[in-house]
């Protein structure tokens, strides 16, 4: 179930934004005036989904901050418990390093 995955797997969430070309591990505290965080459902122990929150630091969010048509993307990496995640050579904040280490294709 989704709840057991949350409790047993490593879940990484990444964001790449319009016009930037970089991919950031969440939380992203300030990308063009927007903050991106993630959590699980309502925060209750029964929640079984991942929720990504995008909030404007000031005013309203714009299409440049969140619209997928502008190239804004979220990426999820779910690493099962039987995979060795303690590899010292992997920088988990670096999406490209994680992709290379686990053979992930976009």
Structure explained in plain terms:
- With 106 residues, the protein is α+β, with helices and mostly antiparallel strands.
- It has one domain (2-102).
- It is built from three helices and six strands.
- The strands form two sheets. The chain has a three-stranded antiparallel sheet. A three-stranded antiparallel sheet has the order 3-4-5, with no helix packed on it.
- The radius of gyration is 15 Å and the shape is globular.
Write the layout of secondary structure elements.
Layout: H1 2-8, E1 10-16, E2 23-25, E3 28-31, E4 34-40, E5 50-56, H2 63-66, E6 73-79, H3 95-102
Antiparallel strand pairs: 1-2, 1-6, 3-4, 4-5
Short description:
With 106 residues, this protein is of the alpha+beta class. The chain contains three helices and six strands.
Number of strands: 6
Distance between the termini: 25 Å
Output the strand order for the largest sheet: 2-1-6
Low-confidence parts lasting 5 or more residues at pLDDT below 50? none
The gross shape turns out to be globular
Sketch the topology as an H/E string, one letter per element.
HEEEEEHEH
Look at the structure and give the mean pLDDT. 85
Q: How many structural units, i.e. domains?
A: 1
Number of helical segments with 4 or more residues:
3
Structural class: alpha+beta
Strand content: 25-35%
The percent of residues in helical segments reads 10-25%
Tell me the radius of gyration: 15 Å
Describe the main β-sheet briefly.
Answer: 3 strands, antiparallel
Quaternary status: single chain
């Amino acid at each position: 179930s989704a709840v057991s995955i949350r409790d047993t797997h490593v879940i990484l969430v990444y964001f790449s934004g319009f016009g930037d070309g970089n991919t950031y591990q969440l939380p992203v505290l300030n990308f063009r005036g927007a903050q991106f965080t993630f959590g699980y459902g309502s925060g209750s122990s029964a929640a079984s989904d991942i929720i990504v929150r995008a909030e404007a630091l000031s005013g309203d969010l714009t299409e440049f901050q969140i619209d997928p048509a502008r190239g804004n993307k979220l990426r999820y990496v779910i690493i099962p418990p039987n995979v060795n995640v303690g590899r010292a050579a992997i920088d988990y904040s670096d999406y490209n390093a994680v992709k290379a280490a686990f053979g992930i294709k976009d």
